[in-house]
Amino acid sequence: MGRIKVVEFHSANWNIYPILDSEIVAGRTMREHLLAQDVEWDAARRDNIGTADLLFFKGVMDLPPHPRRVFNAFYTEVMKRVYGKPFLTLMGEPREHCRLSYLFSDKEATLCVAPDDELDRIFLPNEWRDPCIEGWNDRQDRFCWIGRPMPDRVRAAKELVKNGVDLDIYSKSPWPLSCWKGFAPDDYETALGYKYRIVFENYPTHQYHSEKLFLAIRSGCITFYRGDPRLDLPEIRGLFIPYSIENIVERRYDERSILSAMGEFMRSDAWKMYSYEAFINTVIKKIYQRMEANGP
After folding, report:
1. Distance between terminal CA atoms of the chain?
2. 159-171 pLDDT per residue, tens
3. How many other CB atoms sit within 10 Å of the CB of residue 272?
4. Closest CA to 34 of 217, 290, 277, 292
5. Which terminal Cβ of the chain has fewer Cβ within 10 Å, N or C?
């Protein structure tokens, strides 16, 4: 098999081709890394779709429900098949946001963040930043919560405040609590001032796992995390505490062991499961699988 030409269709969510010249490993850009694996990447244009070996799509958001969103999602699914070429779909949103894209997905052609047991997982990429764990004792003995005010989060925050938990909340949209502090321009810098952080996934369903937990670990906070109870990622086991009011109020955790595990994770290659390098290697592996499945 010679060099594989991949054409990526624009998405409103997240695109690879604008960051092809970003460095993902020491001294090598994403474009160079792809070419070293015999993969040539380009943005879709009228003049290059026909010469592509594989088409690369993103899941189309159809929430909140709107006729145009539903049409765009359905149209994209039709066009994937009309072109008559191997294709790959990456979905970086929960199923509740891309219902049609997940509905029409299949294991051989999909990488996603909410795989359940039938699809293949991909982790959204992030950069390593020093978590400053050594200075953890000097931080505020308070909890921070950085995220928009979804109903389940507001209910949980009110319960925490009612139980006397020292909580500061940051988001663009206001929360109906006096502990809302406004927008945090840099969540990493903001969280560095706190010992504890609360993280809720947008949806605790379909084994959905976004970048939120990694961002909290990267900031060096002991994190109380709520995701899908069925989610099992052995690589990050012991790096967080399952969220519950009892775990927080009754201090049901061993700070030293969690901080030690976080430091070991961040300062070894283990964290690279969330790196750009691992992300693009997962994509490359799936591309080759798709090409081999479709034959010469």
Report:
1. 8
2. 999 999 999 999 9
3. 16
4. 277
5. C
**Tokens 């663009």 found at:** 172
Question: How many whole angstroms separate alpha carbon 168 and alpha carbon 197?
Answer: 10
Rg of the chain over all Cα atoms, to the nearest angstrom: 21
Determine contact, residues 24/277, Cβ cutoff 8 Å.
yes
DSSP codes joined into one string, 219-249: TT-EEEEE--TT---GGGTTSSEE--HHHHH
Which parts of 114-160 are beta strand (E)? 120-121, 140-146
CATH for 225:
3.40.50
Give 108's DSSP letter.
Answer: G
Closest CA to 57 of 275, 288, 287: 287
Q: For residue 117, give the 3-state DSSP assignment.
A: coil
- Separation CA 45–CA 213 (nearest Å): 36
Are 250 and 283 within one domain? no
Distances (CA, A) of 241 to 113, 164, 208, 253: 21, 19, 17, 7
Q: Which domain holds residue 243?
A: 133-272
Domain count, the chain: 2
Across the range 226-241, mean pLDDT stands at 94
Helices (H), the chain: 30-36, 67-82, 99-103, 151-162, 187-191, 212-218, 245-249, 255-266, 276-293
Q: Phi/psi at 109 (nearest 5 deg)?
A: -125, 20
pTM of the model: 0.93
Q: Are residues 282 and 266 in the same domain?
A: no
Q: What is the pLDDT of residues 103-153, one digit of tens each?
A: 999 999 999 999 999 999 999 999 999 999 999 999 999 999 999 999 999
CA distance 17 to 29: 12
User: What residue type is 125 in one-letter code?
Assistant: P
